[in-house]
Specification:
HMG_CoA_synt_C_dom; binds 3-hydroxy-3-methylglutaryl-coenzyme A; HMG_CoA_synth_N; alpha+beta; transferase; Peroxisomal Thiolase, Chain A, domain 1; acyltransferase; three-stranded mixed β-sheet; Hydroxymethylglutaryl-CoA synthase; 36% helix; 18 strands
Length: 386
């Protein structure tokens, strides 16, 4: 049997609080249709003070890891652009919380929303290069913060996705080669002195679409793949409207009847994203989970994935759906997580927002606010996390 390397399990966690974007539109005196249709988002996850990238990542990964996984993981990659420490990798806190094997490499990587894809490709190369290695854990966890009453406010969100990468995976086999492109641009950035991102919004959307064209053309040239070889195409989703524009761009030359199924799959693939908002580096993989949870895809179907991280780096790659993949998904758990969330008023959301910004306090306690979470942040003593 040929060796396939890919995604064996996916875990997902998003905060237990959300804001309905109709409420936000009313408060900001904007037509709700702008947010729901123009931006393409319905709700956004709101981070409480007892969650951060480490606890969200632990909550996501705990869903999928059994005892054998914890023993067999020998590489743990934590992708984030919402780091909690300039020196120590969040991967080490995660390793401890999840009791993952100490004979593992554990580190943190950053390149905006592209980080988890970098992690995924490193995981692939690691397993391909080391026959005795068995499993790699890649997590992407972030908090998208632009600020109250900013243009980006409606595109905020938070959450974590955990991907277990193995040989003979049960969900998706990753294909090589892939196509990537990077170029230094100022479309979105967050200097160390800020806890909210800076974005040249319209410019950033144009770059996302430009990089899509560059990587898709490069992918086609490298592999000879046509769009019609792909059953569906998934996108990094900062907000669903931008993914939709990407899909329109890719499908311009297709006949209307052929186009339709790509747009149907796109709707399925953005269901969770519409409710959670941007979780930065996890967004593409939340879209993947959305599609897998809601569609019965035939084994062997090829899926295209477009990853984009501001700054900017993009990659286009494909993955093949594995037989009986549905048996591995925890659909009810994902849906229950979203259904049991508590709706906040705009005033409550603003209060949560202020509480989760940077603080000068070195020692503090945090009241538990996430009753369904396995892991939560309880504060700091002697500048050490609890
Ligand atoms: P804006 O000022 O709200 O833009 O900023 P707008 O006034 O052009 O409105 C947006 C859309 O709503 C337009 O549609 C309007 O026509 C429509 P479009 O022309 O785009 O098709 N609209 C309406 N539709 C229906 N009914 C109405 C109505 N009114 C208007 N009544 C912007 C939007 C995205 C720029 C802003 O939210 C922003 O700056 N967001 C943050 C940056 C961002 O998300 N960029 C995405 C690309 S970069 C990326 O993906 C990377 C990222 O994830 C970070 C990372 O890599 O780490 C961000």
């Amino acid at each position: 049997m040929a060796t396939i390397i890919g995604i064996d399990k996916i875990g997902f966690y998003s905060p237990e609080y959300y804001l309905d974007l109709t409420d936000l539109a009313t408060a900001r005196q904007v037509d709700p249709a702008k947010y729901k249709i123009g931006i393409g988002q319905d709700q956004m996850a709101v981070l409480p003070a007892d969650q951060d990238i480490v606890t969200m990542a632990a909550n996501a990964a705990a869903q999928i890891l059994d005892q054998a996984d914890r023993q067999q993981i020998d590489l743990l990659i934590f992708a984030t652009e919402s780091g909690i420490d300039q020196s120590k990798a969040a991967a080490l806190y995660l390793q401890e919380l999840l009791q993952i094997n100490h004979q593992a490499r554990a580190f943190e990587i950053k390149e905006a929303c592209y980080g988890a894809t970098a992690g995924l490709q490193i995981a692939y190369d690691h397993l391909a290069a080391h026959p005795t290695s068995q499993k790699v854990l890649v997590v992407g966890a972030d908090v998208a913060r632009y600020g109250i009453a900013t243009a980006g406010e409606v595109t905020q969100g938070a959450g974590a996705v955990a991907l277990l990468i193995t040989r003979q995976p049960r969900l998706l086999g990753l294909q090589q080669p892939t196509a990537y492109y990077s170029e230094e641009i100022m479309d979105f950035w967050r200097p160390n002195y800020r806890d909210t991102a800076l974005a040249d919004g319209k410019f950033s959307t144009a770059q996302y679409l430009r990089f899509l064209d560059l990587t898709w053309q490069a992918y086609r040239a490298k592999t000879g793949t046509q769009l019609t070889d792909l059953t569906a195409v998934l996108f990094h989703i900062p907000f669903t409207k931008l993914g939709l524009k990407g899909l329109r761009q890719l499908t311009t030359d297709l006949a209307a009847a052929t186009k339709e199924s790509y747009f149907d799959y796109f709707q399925q693939a953005t269901g969770y994203n519409r409710q959670v908002g941007n979780l930065y580096t996890g967004s593409l993989y939340l879209s993947l989970l959305s599609l897998l949870d809601q569609q019965q895809l035939a084994a062997g179907s090829k899926i295209g994935l477009y990853s984009y991280g501001s700054g900017a780096v993009a990659e286009f790659f494909t993955a093949v759906v594995q037989p009986n993949y549905q048996q591995t998904l925890q659909v009810a758990c994902h849906q229950q997580q979203l259904h049991q969330r508590q709706r906040l008023t705009v005033a409550e959301y603003e209060q949560f927002f202020m509480q989760t910004g940077l603080t000068d306090d070195h020692d503090f306690q945090i009241k538990r606010q996430s009753p369904h979470a396995d892991f939560y942040f309880a504060g700091q003593t002697d500048q050490r996390r609890i």
